[in-house]
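sorry for the late reply, my laptop died twice this morning and i had to redo everyting from scratch. anyway the thing you sent over, i finally got around to it. pasting the sequence first so we're on the same page, its 256 residues, then the predicted structure underneath. double check i copied it right bc i was rushing
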Amino acid sequence: MTTPLPTERTAVVTGAGSPRGIGRATCDRLARDGWAVAVLDVDGDAAKRAAADNADAHSVPTLGIAVDISDEGAVDVAVATVESALPPIVGLANVAGVSSPIDFLDVTAAEWDRVFNVNMRGTFFVTRRVVPAMIAAGVGRIVSVSSISAQRGGGTYSKVPYSASKAAVIGFTRALAREMGPHHITVNCVAPGPIDTEIMGGTLTEERKAAMSADIPLGRVGTVDDVAALLTFLMGEDAGYITAATYDVNGGLQIS
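ok and here's the structure:
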């Protein structure tokens, strides 16, 4: 039998400050479903605005916090603040990420570390910090954003460092799911294809959308809500028997 989620519960969402981002759309859906929401973003002002908007729209407790998730100490302080101000943390959406469209022979060690520090190391720091609260609650939902780039070897916008870091997220998800199963904590990830967000190098022009859509069976690039809907489902009551899974959200661009 699926362990029910507590009525009063908090979801932590990283990288959720950008008005056009997957994280922001996910926060909105979670708040609509009754979750208290903690918005973590390197842009503290954006995080606070997102939290205030969710509180106004859905009348749920929210908190917006500035944090660089690649800094373990900063993550510890941020999550401690959430734990002291909001209901127990039961959900986590690891959405924060950075892109890297640099050709491999031009990739420096600093660039490699910049990408991995956010996309994988940051995911590790935040997840490691919130898991004890989920174990204490007796249930939890963790979902992370990987990428079609991890499956196809790039080919959309970002290249080797990004693809490698997002492939690491898939391995992280599967291994963590094994360990967390006995605690009734599910761990999944989603692998979006081209989505119209800032991580694609800025707002997509209509010409660029058309070029990207040429090989997509559904004939369009994705929206943040296409991804946020799945993230929210995987964090919900009905997803209690889904774990260690990677879900494609790419309009059929990657058929495997």
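The first helix runs from residue 22 to 32.
thats about all i looked at so far, will dig more tmrw
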